[in-house]
Amino acid sequence: MFILRLWSASARPSKPRLDISTRKMTENGVLHPERVLTLDTMNPNVKRVEYAVRGPIVQRAVQIEKELKEGVKKPFTEVLRANIGDCHAMGQRPITFLRQVLALCAYPELLEDNKFPEDAKSRARRFLAACGGGSIGAYSMSQGIELVRQDVARYIERRDGIPSNPDNIYLSSGASDAITTMLKLLISGEGASRTGVMISKPQYPLYSAALADLGGVQINYYLDEAKNWSLDASELRRSLAEAKKHCTPRAICVINPGNPTGQVQSRQCIEDVIRFAAEENLFLMADEVYQDNIYAEGCEFNSFKKVLFEMGPKYSNKVELASFHSTSKCYMGECGFRGGYMELINLDPDVKVQLTKLVSVRLCPPVTGQALLDLVVNPPQPDEPSYPTFKKERAAVLAALADKAKMAEEIFNKVPGISCNTVQGAMYAFPRIELPQKAIEAAKEKGQAPDMFYCMSLLEEKGICLVPGSGFGQREGTFHFRMTILPPTETLKVVLQKIEEFHLKFTEQYS
User: I want to staple 76 with a disulfide (CB 3.0 to 4.6 A). Which of 306, 341, 401, 463 is the partner?
Assistant: First the structure.
């Protein structure tokens, strides 16, 4: 009563008296109001979000790194991370020309420095002239700087041989931002009318996480592991027929080259997807952020837009397409700058108005990311002084990745109980692992997926951080892990050797 009287005396007369039921006792005996935001009152969709790439394995890796710094003895001296496609964190060096121009844009006084080549200076001046007040610190248009969108359109025209309209290009904070934005536009309804979106299994967890957050329905279609993770039209139809029983399918997402599976879809597969989208009236989302990462002989990148238009007006006038690209992958690997774009084909003009309104809420994509993107789509030309170095550095990065892709595949396939498809593109191997029944039972006792149990054991024993296949989705009864091929060659050899040692010991232990 004494506490309540004090509270009442200090409160304004117009305010209602505090009900003691809205307060709870903490451990130190101090009364606090109940929190408004709790696990019970928060958005339930957020609790359903999972993102394996930075999930429990990575969190444990961070803890182990802290323990090593504190002097805790482990069977290893460092954690080797091969869990995420973070190029520069894995040791890839920045492309000189890109960083030179970005430095000039960030600190224009350097334009007077004769250490910088003239083509880098001219690019910086051109970009700064397109910025408000001549500064990258100014907001841009919400859709992105017009100069950059024009350069992106010219890049697409050179790549595909098909006209591109800058007004149909939206710059973004990496491809992830644009993908999530399109899903926001697509998802609606409740119950059986709720929007369903077809995503591949295995898939990049951005898609499942965004669908969970936005309240959409995840429709799984499985890639064919026996055919190097290719798409199968009959599987698409099976998946769609099942989904129509409980939701309203409205979109299909394809990642090409693939993440986590590292495949490059054939032109025939792409045509099959386009026909399927047209027949079923589905919005098509093409995630093409690894388009420069092609390694295997006989493989080539075909953009969905190029194939769509080459299939003729029957498809190019009908299929609604959003394609995505990013500065985070390929030879650039500039993940932290958050640059990207999407191009939209056949979007309803009224919806486009709503899209522009939606992106206006976030004001604009990072201007530094826009500057970087402009350099990616408009790189040094043969008659410019920076071209020889740029060409050499770009080729070296892609050649090293190709060598490491082949090395990972060959080494994995020599280990009993591990099999790995050809790493045709992207930045990852996704090998299949055979696990003894005792290991599966041990995982069950710990409440873990078997490949999570495997990867966690690998981390604790060898200091190797991978992501279990269960975090990406996989066929029932199969187990995998994803490993990036980005670490330097010598480091990657160590990682592969340790995985081999661990797998043989693990298999023996649980046999």
Answer: 463
Residue that is written with structure tokens 């045709």 in the block: 424
> CA-to-CA distance for 490 and 471, rounded, in angstroms?
28
Place of tokens 């604009």: 364
Which pLDDT belongs to residue 375? 97
The answer to whether residues 20 and 4 touch, using CB atoms and an 8 Å cutoff, is yes
What digits encode the pLDDT tens for the residues 211-226?
A: 988 889 999 999 999 9
Q: Is the pLDDT of residue 4 over 50?
A: no
Torsion sign over Cα 46, 49, 52, 56: positive
Count CB-CB contacts under 10 A for residue 115.
Answer: 7
* C-alpha to C-alpha distance for 449 and 455, rounded to whole angstroms: 10
Predicted pLDDT at 362: 85
Output the CA–CA distances (angstroms, integers) from residue 448 to 53, 81, 144, 453, in the order listed: 16, 21, 44, 6
Give, as one character, the DSSP assignment of residue 436: -
Q: Which helix (H) or strand (E) holds 249?
A: strand 248-255
- Give the separation between CA 434 and CA 244, rounded to whole angstroms: 34
344 secondary structure, DSSP code: E
Token pair in block for residue 470: 């269960």
CA angle 318, 320, 322 (to 5 degrees): 150
Give whole-number Cα distances, 271 to 249, 259, 265, in Å: 20, 20, 10
Residue 343 contacts residue 309 (beta carbons within 8 Å):
no
- C-alpha of 285 from chain center: 14
pLDDT score of 131 more than 70: yes
Helix (H, G, I), strand (E, B) or coil at 108: helix
Q: In whole angstroms, what is the distance from residue 99 CA to residue 119 CA? A: 13
Largest CA distance in the chain: 85
The whole-number average pLDDT for the span 162-180 is 94
- Segment 68-90, tens digit of pLDDT: 899 899 888 888 988 888 888 88
Q: What is the pLDDT of residue 192?
A: 87
d(CA 431, CA 450): 15
**Rounded Cα distance, 485 and 492, in Å:** 7
DSSP 48: T
Q: What distance, in Å, lies between the first and last C-alpha atoms of the chain? A: 67
Label the pairing between strands 340-345 and 169-172. antiparallel
